């Protein structure tokens, strides 16, 4: 057909035939024919005639005819000409709705097929340019629309309706229709829907329906608050967890005025619920919060309750400055959490102190902190909250300065029970710190409390000064926790301008002297009088106090504080048997935010190290390293909140200024401990990584100018040099010349000779650091790799693995070098790395064909086993500050795990399959034993590499992995291999245990029988094995063997816990013979974690059968 007119003429009289069947067929032909007509050829008059005709035909009651006509309307609504104009104009859309859909049909009486078409047509009209026509219908459209959607139950239709609701709410004036329209949504809240199963079921979930309804009700908040708030409070008060979650989630978003206040993502922004509605229903909302706050709830509910609380704060702070409204809100909100200033306390005589009320639970305290923290931008509301809270939790201190006693015993008796309340006050003041610093003024109550703390601190100071002999009697009477809490409260209140106005210089000096007295007594002699459980809390509070003092105190006060704290450090170092130093830990915390403190502490420790005698020099040097390590670790974990990059650059400048002294001190450490070496390496990696390019270059050049003999024979300097290289940015490496750095590192590896007294583990750490530095340079080279870099890597590989089977002590370095280079090449997304990777990885894939003919097979077998022991570390990316972390600018890819699996792990499986064939061509019994040991080493490495696989990759290769797991557990005699098999077996079972069919298809009954039978033998081996070196090729020492045996027993316990999910007919026959006897032994294991896992497995088995 070339035109609509031709199509109609071809149908002749069928369109008006009195026979329904004939008319039905003709209408279907017409609507189907519309699809073939070029839209640009359809005339406006033809469209008008077609609309008039289809509307008139809707009077026919036949459902098939109705569906056909609606299909015609849908075609008209979707049709767009080449010039982007629509076939259907707004007036015609109005005619379809008013005279057709709403005039001829009772929509809710239709079957699903026509109803679905009606809603799709309305959705098109509401979202297109036809909306203007529908809006002209006004109230008549809204009345008919509400009737059309009211009572709908089909989820597919509801999905469309919820989408239309958003347009209706945004585009129409609902006026007197508000309540009726709201009821069309409220009837479904909360969604209670379970998706049907079957091939023909629509892909609609409860979550999608719930989100659609959530958006609709959220959009209605501007007019539906009188109906919505009672509904949400009612559902949140129910016992149905899903109703609680949905209600609190919607209430939170409505209060915050935006979608996405919690988990749901969204971009809509708008006003909160109107304040006059909110005040009317505040009691109901408070009741919901009270219920949630006073019972144990899930993490999701807890998060939503917090968000609802902050939403209330936002709603009030953003809509009113009326102090009476805000006071009523604060009183109601805090009453919800049990904080009430009743008449008995308000009217109590001045100076009388009642017993403390019930302390809010930890959960309630967290809610209070959340509310105070969120109110910070609104100084008025934040001030009212804090004023109300301080009146409640610090009431004994309000009049203490004028009526309190100076007798120590009475103070402890009266205020001791209030100490937890004062500690809560400190946390609340920390939560509103920003607001306090901005406003700068204390309320009258705050001033009174501050004066009370000053009075108490004066009393404490006098008591400690009078006790010149530092008698233990005073220590037993004076609870340090109360003294420190009062001090912390006073320090926090002192940041207000109005508090400084009432503090004299003498009082400040007394406070600092008191602080020094407390630190001295706590830090050394009287730790035994402090409960161990309180010591950490007290130390944290002291750190907060000293950090605040260094931020806000005047220069004379700081000088006094410095003399006290640095004097305590010096006194500690001068003791015959110095221990830990509390003053040092306090100063290092303060130094994180104060560059002057950092510089003075660094200089002080360095001067103490160089000036003290040799007896204490090592101790002070260790303290210096510990402080630097603390700075670096804190910066790596939270560089913005705890230690800014600026502070780390300042620290780098300090180091650059005294590197020569530090290196000289390191030369005096011929046999450093492994802890010292590791801390130094981590510290210099982080500091270098967070430094500027110019600082990185200076650090590198300093160590690069050291002679080769110094770097080769001084272990600590070698570690620092490698750590600096590891953390260099790629741009810095390109500036310095990557090939030159790599050449120097290899020369360093070949010439490094450990001092005789250096531990083997420390020397291995050093050689590993050299290998990591080499790999780090390779990782950061620009793409594509330069030919010189390629050449150097291949030459180094040939020297380490091809040219000579004996490396005169470089064997272990060769293993680490190869693994970290493979890791470097895999991590970088550049394609040019693949050629070098294939060359290096060939050493893992050439056995046994190329090795068996060689004369020194035993030596090479040992080396390949050592390599396979190290190989699984390729997947270990390490903590912040490690060589592969972002701090060290490691170039990585999100596909690293997948690339490792396909390019390293699966090729190992091919070698495992090939090695049994080598047994037939090996010429001696010794070589046959070597091949067996080699197979176990390959199998162990393969299994350990599979452990970190993500679930999707694990499921994809379950069949292959299951084969090797059973091979390791049932066929190997190596403890390492069997344990690795057990650990992966547990991961596989945990992955498929919810699918019984998949579980039984992967593991046959015979396989399971073999696994159960192996467990007692494996437990016996783990209990009696001390070394597995000769059997597996691993270089194990007693400590490593002990850890391996513990890991084996733990794996057996975990395996038994996983096996309980097998079918009853399988597990039933092994319960008494192989399971319970093993668990009896594991329940008495000397290692607690093994006993815990065994107890978990034992309970599962007893409950299962």
UniProtKB/TrEMBL annotation:
UniProt entry keywords in alphabetical sequence: Cytoplasm, Cytoskeleton, DNA damage, DNA repair, Nucleus
Database matches in SUPFAM superfamilies: ARM repeat
Subcellular localization(s) per the UniProt record: Cytoplasm, Cytoskeleton, Spindle; Nucleus
Record-annotated MMS19 N-terminal domain positions: 8-256
Chief location category: cytoplasm
UniProt xrefs under InterPro entries: ARM-like (IPR011989), ARM-type_fold (IPR016024), HEAT_type_2 (IPR021133), MMS19 (IPR039920), MMS19_N (IPR029240)
Classification via PANTHER family: DNA REPAIR/TRANSCRIPTION PROTEIN MET18/MMS19, MMS19 NUCLEOTIDE EXCISION REPAIR PROTEIN HOMOLOG
Subunit comment: Component of the CIA complex.
Family stated for the protein in its record: Belongs to the MET18/MMS19 family.
Described function: Key component of the cytosolic iron-sulfur protein assembly (CIA) complex, a multiprotein complex that mediates the incorporation of iron-sulfur cluster into apoproteins specifically involved in DNA metabolism and genomic integrity. In the CIA complex, MMS19 acts as an adapter between early-acting CIA components and a subset of cellular target iron-sulfur proteins.
The protein's name in its UniProt record: MMS19 nucleotide excision repair protein
Organism field: Opisthorchis felineus
């Amino acid at each position: 057909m070339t035109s609509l007119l031709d199509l109609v003429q071809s149908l002749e009289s069928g369109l008006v035939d009195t026979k329904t069947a004939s008319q039905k067929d003709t209408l279907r032909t017409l609507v189907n024919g519309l699809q073939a007509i070029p839209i640009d050829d359809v005339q406006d008059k033809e469209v008008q005639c077609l609309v008039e005709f289809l509307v008139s035909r809707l009077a026919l009651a036949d459902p098939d005819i109705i569906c056909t006509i609606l299909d015609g309307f849908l075609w008209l609504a979707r049709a767009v000409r080449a010039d982007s104009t629509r076939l259907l104009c707004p007036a015609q859309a109005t005619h379809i709705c008013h005279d057709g859909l709403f005039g001829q049909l009772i929509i809710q009486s239709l079957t699903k097929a026509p109803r679905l078409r009606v809603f799709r047509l309305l959705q098109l009209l509401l979202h297109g340019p036809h909306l203007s026509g529908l809006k002209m219908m006004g109230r008549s459209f809204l009345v008919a629309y509400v009737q059309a959607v009211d009572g709908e139950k089909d989820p597919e239709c509801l999905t469309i309706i919820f989408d239309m609701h958003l347009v209706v709410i945004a585009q129409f004036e609902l006026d007197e229709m508000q309540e009726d329209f709201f009821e069309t949504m409220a009837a479904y809240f909360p969604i209670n829907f379970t998706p049907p199963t079957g091939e023909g079921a629509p892909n609609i979930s409860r979550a999608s329906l719930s989100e659609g309804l959530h958006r609709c009700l959220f959009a209605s908040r501007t007019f539906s608050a009188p109906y919505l708030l009672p509904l949400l409070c009612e559902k949140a008060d129910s016992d149905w967890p899903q109703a609680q979650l949905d209600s609190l989630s919607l209430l939170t978003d409505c209060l915050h005025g935006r979608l996405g206040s919690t988990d749901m993502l969204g971009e809509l922004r708008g006003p909160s619920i109107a304040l006059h509605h909110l005040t009317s229903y505040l009691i109901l909302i408070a009741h919901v919060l009270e219920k949630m706050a006073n019972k144990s709830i899930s993490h999701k509910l807890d998060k939503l309750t917090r968000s609802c609380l902050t939403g209330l704060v936002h709603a009030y702070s953003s809509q009113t400055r009326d102090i009476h409204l805000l006071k009523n809100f604060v009183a109601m909100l805090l009453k919800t959490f049990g904080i009430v200033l009743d008449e008995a306390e308000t009217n109590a005589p001045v100076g009388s102190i009642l017993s403390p009320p019930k302390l809010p639970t930890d959960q309630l305290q967290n809610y209070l902190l959340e509310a105070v923290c969120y109110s910070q931008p609104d100084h008025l509301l934040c001030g009212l909250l804090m004023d109300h809270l301080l009146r409640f939790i610090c009431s004994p201190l309000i009049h203490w300065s004028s009526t309190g006693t100076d007798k120590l015993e009475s103070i402890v008796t009266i205020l001791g029970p209030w100490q937890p309340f004062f500690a809560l006050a400190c946390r609340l003041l920390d939560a509103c710190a920003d607001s306090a610093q901005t406003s700068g003024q204390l309320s009258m109550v705050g001033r009174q409390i501050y004066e009370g703390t000053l009075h108490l601190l004066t009393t404490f100071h006098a008591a400690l000064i009078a006790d010149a002999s530092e008698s233990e009697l005073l220590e037993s009477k004076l609870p340090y926790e109360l003294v420190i809490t009062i001090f912390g409260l006073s320090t926090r209140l002192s940041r207000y301008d109005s508090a400084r106005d009432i503090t004299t210089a003498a009082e400040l000096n007394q406070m600092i002297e008191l602080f020094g007295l407390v630190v001295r007594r706590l830090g050394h002699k009287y730790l035994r009088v402090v409960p161990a459980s309180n010591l950490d809390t007290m130390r944290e509070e002291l750190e907060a106090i000293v950090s605040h003092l260094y931020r806000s105190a005047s220069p004379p006060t700081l000088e006094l504080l410095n003399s006290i704290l640095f004097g305590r450090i010096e006194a500690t170092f001068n003791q015959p048997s110095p221990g830990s130093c509390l003053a040092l830990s306090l100063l290092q915390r303060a130094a994180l935010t104060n560059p002057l403190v950092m510089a003075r502490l660094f200089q002080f420790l360095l001067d103490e190290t160089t000036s003290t005698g040799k007896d204490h020099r090592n101790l002070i040097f260790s303290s210096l390293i510990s402080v630097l390590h603390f700075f670096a670790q804190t910066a790596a974990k939270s560089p913005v909140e705890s230690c800014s990059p600026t502070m780390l650059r300042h620290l780098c400048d300090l180091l650059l200024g005294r590197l020569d002294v530090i290196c000289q001190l390191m030369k005096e450490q011929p046999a450093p401990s492994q802890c010292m070496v590791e801390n130094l390496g981590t510290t210099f990696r982080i500091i270098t990584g967070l430094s500027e390019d110019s600082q990185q270059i200076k650090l590198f050049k300093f160590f690069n100018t050291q002679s080769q003999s110094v770097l080769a024979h001084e272990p600590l300097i070698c570690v620092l040099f490698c750590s600096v290289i590891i953390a260099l940015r790629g741009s810095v490496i390109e500036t310095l010349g990557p090939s030159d750095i790599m050449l120097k590192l290899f020369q360093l590896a070949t010439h490094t000779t450990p001092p005789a007294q250096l531990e083997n583990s420390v020397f291995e750490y050093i050689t590993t650091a050299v290998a990591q530095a080499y790999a780090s340079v390779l990782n950061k080279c620009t793409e594509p790799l330069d030919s010189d870099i390629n050449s150097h890597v291949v030459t180094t590989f040939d020297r380490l693995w091809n040219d000579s089977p004996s490396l005169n002590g470089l064997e272990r370095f060769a293993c680490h070098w190869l693994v970290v280079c493979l890791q470097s090449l895999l991590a970088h997304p550049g394609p040019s790395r693949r050629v070098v990777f294939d060359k290096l990885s060939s050493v893992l894939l050439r056995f046994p064909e190329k090795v068996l003919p060689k004369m020194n097979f035993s030596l090479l077998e040992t080396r390949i086993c050592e390599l396979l022991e190290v190989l699984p570390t390729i997947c270990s990316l390490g903590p912040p500050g490690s060589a592969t972390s972002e701090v060290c600018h490691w170039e990585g890819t999100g596909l690293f795990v997948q690339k490792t699996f396909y390019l390293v792990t699966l090729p190992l499986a091919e070698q495992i399959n090939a090695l049994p064939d080598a047994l037939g061509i090996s010429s001696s019994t010794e070589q046959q034993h070597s091949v067996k040991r080699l197979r176990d080493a390959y199998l162990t490495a393969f299994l350990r590499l599979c452990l970190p696989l993500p679930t999707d990759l694990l499921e994809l290769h379950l069949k292959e992995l299951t084969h090797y797991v059973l091979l390791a557990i049932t066929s190997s005699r190596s403890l390492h291999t069997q344990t690795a098999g057990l650990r992966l077996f547990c991961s596989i079972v945990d992955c498929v245990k919810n699918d019984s069919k998949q579980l039984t298809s992967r593991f046959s009954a015979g396989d399971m029988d073999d696994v159960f039978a192996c467990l007692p033998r494996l437990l016996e081996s783990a209990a009696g094995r001390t070394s597995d070196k000769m059997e597996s090729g691993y270089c194990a020492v007693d400590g490593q063997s002990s850890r391996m045996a513990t890991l084996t027993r733990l794996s057996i316990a975990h395996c038994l816990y996983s096996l309980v999910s097998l079918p009853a007919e399988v597990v039933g026959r092994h319960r008494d013979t192989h399971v319970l006897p093993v668990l009896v032994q594991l329940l008495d294991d000397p290692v607690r974690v093994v006993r815990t896992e065994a107890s978990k497995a034992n309970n599962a088995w007893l409950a299962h059968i």
